[in-house]
Amino acid sequence: MRISEGYLIAFILGSGTVQAFAPIRPKANAIRSYTDGTIQCSYLRATADSNKNEKQEVKPDILEPFPSAADPKYSVRGPVGEGDFIVTRSGGPSAEELTNENLLRILKIECSDLEVNTLVWKCLGYRFDEDNEEWKPDEVFPNWKEKYPTPPDLIGMQRIYSKEVDQPSLRANQAIVRSIPVDNKQSLKTHLKPLGFTGYQYKELTPNKTRRAQCANWLLFYREELFGYTVEELRERRRQKKEAEKRRLEAEGKQEGDEWKPPIKEVF
Predict the structure, then answer these.
(1) What digits encode the pLDDT tens for the residues 225-260?
(2) Which of 22, 116, 129, 192 is deepest in the core (most CB within 10 A)?
(3) What is the reported pTM?
(4) Measured distance CA(55)–CA(241) in Å, rounded
(5) Nearest-angstrom CA–CA distance, 68 and 157
(6) Other CB atoms within 10 A of residue 152 CB
(7) Which are the contacts of 179, defined by CB distance < 8 A and separation ≥ 6?
(8) Torsion angle, alpha carbons of 152, 158, 161, 163, to 10
(9) How much is the pLDDT for 55?
(10) What is the per-residue pLDDT across 45-63, written as a single tens digit (0 to 9) for each?
(11) Per-residue model confidence (pLDDT) at position 118
């Protein structure tokens, strides 16, 4: 753990240990300790010189369970778009909702799980019926609609990770990840690194952060490759790409299948 010219106070109570930082005391030059009954306090000096090359310890942000998300009405009545994150339930996705700056807020956890879901649902083609308070699959991509006629929770809004509660969210998130072509797998790095996003460290990963990153990556793919096109136009673009790829392989003396690529289950 990194400490900047201060003290680490360790209170040892029985078999448990709780750690906290004491005020900075840059002139201290010794380790002192005393014992009072069952409580032992140790003051450890740590200087900037001895720690300047150490990386700050990163720990996962453990989020509290949110059982209110289990209410079927939460997805249609829960608050969205009340903070800095730009999203509304109404209509289709907008260019403003899909800016790099807005999508970065997903990764920085500056928006709710419901707001992330809401934006992805709109991009998938679900449309909110305000009169009946329900999401309808009127414009959902055909392949996705076949499996998900109603919008799935892609994040795990309840934050309860038992199999019986979380598995539907996990499977839905995996499905959306499989729809991203290999050329778009690094969209976070491509588009958000210039804004300062350097990724998550392994030690800080949680299901919530991982799924937020997957959703943000899919939203970037959607913005760059799907946004503004009809299903017919997308299928024609796919056909043209396949023909161009076939010509490339022929020019290199290769055949289809010589180069392995991960399977893709496109939403359209």
Answers:
(1) 999 999 999 999 999 999 998 899 889 888 877 777
(2) 116
(3) 0.76
(4) 45
(5) 9
(6) 20
(7) 144, 218, 264, 265, 266, 267
(8) -50
(9) 54
(10) 333 333 444 456 677 777 8
(11) 98
Closest listed residue to residue 123, CA positions, set 22, 236, 224:
224
What does the block give as tokens for 132? 């009946």
C-alpha span between 124 and 141 (Å, rounded) = 6
Torsion region of 114: left, alpha or beta (phi above 0 gives left; psi -120 to 50 gives alpha): alpha
Q: Which two tokens stand for residue 205?
A: 């990963």
Tokens (6 digits) for 16:
């448990």
Burial 109-136 (b: 16+ CB within 10 A, else e): eebbbbbbbbbbbbbbbbbbeeeeebbe
Distances (CA, A) of 243 to 43, 162, 234: 69, 45, 14
Q: Residue length, the chain?
A: 268
Largest CA distance in the chain: 82
Which residue, among 261, 185, 248, has the nearest Cα to 217 in the 3D structure? 185
